[in-house]
Write a structure and sequence with these properties.
294 residues, mainly alpha, ABC transporter involved in vitamin B12 uptake, BtuC, two-stranded antiparallel sheet, 78% helix, 3% strand, transmembrane, cell membrane, membrane, Metal ABC transporter permease
């Protein structure tokens, strides 16, 4: 029972953290930048390990955050040179991810990192890697790391909610009223980088993308208010984590994969049943003029 609790709690923390940040990525039409960051932070993790010789969580976070910001800077530099947005994202994240793979493969005997773990996660084993403090078992390290990351994200969003909101909806107006748009852009990207690396050992780099995009996209269909969108995104992510775990037990399948699959199902429900933007609502609006004419 405790193993079930820790796994669901880990998935819930990942979903909540990614759900909050995903709303701003979706609103800014930058969802695929989250995908780019989740792949390109790999060389930062590898370099941090080579420099320190340990898997210290703080050093991993710093290395990942640095590479995340470099990724965003390179993407913007390529866009400003005239390259299309999707091409810029594809070039940067594949190149940096390849560098990370080379660093790990060339130094396999020195780097205690598993590429499968980085990509797909090991959420089923989070309860075994615990934090021992003064002889007391404080629980899984992943839970503490993700809790700290979620707290940091919530504090940043609450402190600068108006700035993030205005930058998401109208960057030109934000710049006109004196808000440093570039600063908040890189702050958001830094938070995405931290959240991505904090989730590596639980859901993996690839599946973090699902939690960043799917719950936020579903919430976008359900409401036109940012505060409600944030709440819906977190709720959908939490339901995906819990539902995905029990689905994985029932199907004897990947836990992280099942969580994202459940998120996809919830998105489809939102797409069909959304009161304003759903397929049923759109079909009803199209038929009303015909009914009135008759």
């Amino acid at each position: 029972m405790m193993a079930d609790f820790w796994i669901i709690l880990t998935g819930t923390l990942v979903a909540a953290t990614c759900g909050v940040l995903g709303c701003f990525l979706v609103l800014r039409k930058m969802a695929m930048v989250g995908d780019a960051i989740s792949h390109s932070v790999l060389p930062g993790i590898a370099i941090a390990f080579l420099v320190s010789g340990s898997r210290d969580s703080m050093l991993m976070l710093i290395g990942a955050a640095a590479l995340g910001l470099i990724t965003v800077f390179l993407i913007q530099a390529l866009q400003q040179s005239g390259l299309q947005s999707d091409a810029s994202i594809g070039i940067v994240f594949t190149a940096l991810f390849a560098v990370g793979v080379i660093l790990i493969s060339r130094n396999a005997s020195h780097i205690d990192l598993d590429l499968d773990c980085v990509l797909f996660g090991e959420i089923a084993y989070v309860q075994w890697d615990t934090w021992i403090w003064n002889g007391y078992d404080m629980g899984p390290v992943a839970v503490w790391m993700l809790s700290g990351t979620l707290l940091l994200v919530l504090v940043a969003i609450l402190l600068f909610y108006k700035q993030f909101k205005l930058c998401a909806f109208d960057p030109a107006l934000a710049a006109a009223v004196g808000i440093p748009v570039a600063l908040f852009h890189y702050l958001l990207m830094g938070l995405v980088s931290l959240s991505t690396v904090a989730s590596f050992e639980s859901v993996g780099a690839i599946l973090v993308v699902g939690m960043l995009i799917i719950p936020a996209s579903a919430a976008y269909l359900l409401t036109d208010r940012l505060s409600a969108m944030l709440g819906y995104s977190v709720l959908i992510g939490v339901l995906s984590a819990a539902g995905g775990y029990y689905a994985a037990k029932w199907l004897d399948a990947s836990i992280a994969g099942s969580m994202v699959t459940v998120a996809g199902i919830l998105f489809l429900l939102a797409l069909v049943c959304s009161p304003k933007h759903g397929l049923i609502a759109r079909f009803g609006k199209r038929n009303r003029p015909n009914a009135a004419a008759v």
